[in-house]
Design a protein that fits this description.
9 helices, about 30% helix, 13 strands, alpha/beta, five-stranded antiparallel beta sheet, globular
C-alpha cells in the first residue's frame, strides 16, 4: 500500500494548487520538497498532516483521505517537525520529547532513545527555553522520532535551518537512517547542498503548483534547477560521495 499520495489537493482560500495529477512520496526514501518562499511547501505538509483540509482533491495516507482520520489515527502514522517549535509551558527538553507520545501508548524508552539519537541526552532535564535555537529544533526532531513508528510518515519543515553544519551532518545521517528502516520522509529544504545530500526523490513547487517531480538525480539537475527555483545559476561540485549543488551567486554579480 502507498503510504502518502497527493491527489491534486486544492486550497481555494490560499489558492495553492499542489499537484495537477498525482505525487507519490515513496516509503523507504527521502523526498525533498523545494520552492520559493510562499510557494506552498509548508501548506503541503500541513495538508499531509491533516492540519489543513483541501477544498478539492485529497492527501491519501494508506489509501484513506487523511482529513477523514481522527487525530489519534493521524498520530499513529504521521509525525511533523514544524519550522519553529513554540513551547509556552516551562517544560524540560525530555518533557517536550515525551509530548510525542501524548496520543500514543507511554514509552519512556522511546523518549530516551530519541534524545540520544539527536545527541541531547545530556540536556534532557534542562528547561526547553534555555536551549539554543538549533538545540530546540533537534528536540523537535526527537519528539517526532519518539512518536514515529518504523514504517510511519515523517514530515520535516525546514528541520535543519537553525542547526549548525556539524550537527546537520549528524541529523542528515539520522533522517537517512529512519528512511532506511522503512519510514516515508517528506522534507522541505531551501539549502541546495542539503537537498542533494538528503534526497532520493525531489518535488519542486512553483506558484503553488508542481513544477517538477521525480528522481533526485533528474530533478536536481543544475541545468534546469535554476529555472525551477528562480535562481540565475546553480553550480555542481563532484565529490567522492556524489554531486553537491549550490547557487552560483557570482553569476549574478556585475562583472568588472
Amino acid at each position: 500500500m502507498e503510504p502518502l499520495r497527493f491527489e491534486s489537493p486544492v486550497l481555494e482560500r490560499s489558492r495553492f494548487r499542489f499537484a495537477p495529477g498525482r505525487v507519490l512520496v515513496r516509503p523507504g526514501a527521502v523526498t525533498v520538497l523545494m520552492g520559493a518562499n510562499g510557494s506552498g511547501k509548508s501548506t503541503a505538509l500541513r495538508v499531509a498532516a491533516g492540519l489543513a483540509k483541501p477544498s478539492s482533491g485529497a492527501v491519501l495516507v494508506d489509501g484513506i483521505d487523511v482529513a477523514k482520520r481522527s487525530p489519534w489515527q493521524r498520530a499513529a502514522r504521521i509525525a511533523l517537525v514544524p519550522q519553529r517549535t513554540a513551547v509556552a509551558a516551562p517544560f524540560t527538553a525530555r518533557e517536550v520529547v515525551a509530548l510525542g507520545r501524548v496520543a500514543r501508548p507511554s514509552a519512556p524508552e522511546r523518549v530516551d532513545a530519541a534524545l540520544h539519537a539527536v545527541g541531547l541526552a545530556h540536556r534532557a532535564h534542562d528547561a526547553f527555553g534555555t536551549l539554543s535555537g538549533g538545540q530546540q529544533q533537534r528536540i523537535a526532531l526527537a519528539r517526532a522520532l519518539a512518536q514515529l513508528e518504523p514504517t510511519g510518515i515523517l514530515l520535516l519543515d525546514e528541520a535543519f535551518a537553525a542547526i549548525d553544519p556539524s550537527e546537520t551532518v549528524a541529523m542528515v545521517r539520522l533522517v537517512r537512517s529512519v528512511a532506511g528502516q522503512g519510514a516515508t520522509v517528506l522534507a522541505v529544504a531551501h539549502d541546495l547542498a542539503l537537498a542533494s545530500a538528503l534526497a532520493d526523490d525531489a518535488w519542486v513547487i512553483r506558484d503553488g503548483s508542481t513544477a517538477a517531480f521525480g528522481a533526485a538525480e533528474d530533478v536536481l539537475d543544475p541545468g534546469r534547477l535554476g529555472t525551477l527555483l528562480g535562481v540565475l545559476a546553480v553550480a555542481a561540485i563532484g565529490t567522492s560521495g556524489g554531486r553537491v549543488l549550490a547557487p552560483d551567486y557570482r553569476a549574478s554579480m556585475p562583472q568588472d
